[in-house]
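As a warm-up, study this chain.
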Amino acid sequence: MPRGDKSDYTEKQKRKAAHIAEGYEDRGVPEDEAERRAWATVNKDDGGGNRSGSGRGTHTDNPAAHKGGRKGGKAAASRSPEARSAAAKKGWETRRRRAG
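Now compare it with the structure written out below.
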């Protein structure tokens, strides 16, 4: 099988890669890089191409799907340093008051 040949991947794996690539493109990653990352993610999750048919695939725990929440923090990042500092001080005072 030549490099880049996707014939051994199931339709579900192809849909999965397309969906992942779309997510990367929405975040500004170039199309070819998004596709490369998407297929790398499918390979990491599923261990490469699986032949279609009942019982022919291998069960995976979807390790790449466990990264939810790691790209958060946009709300805090968009605030000014002064506003973040004020919120931190307020939180500290609240924790100190409740602890004592």
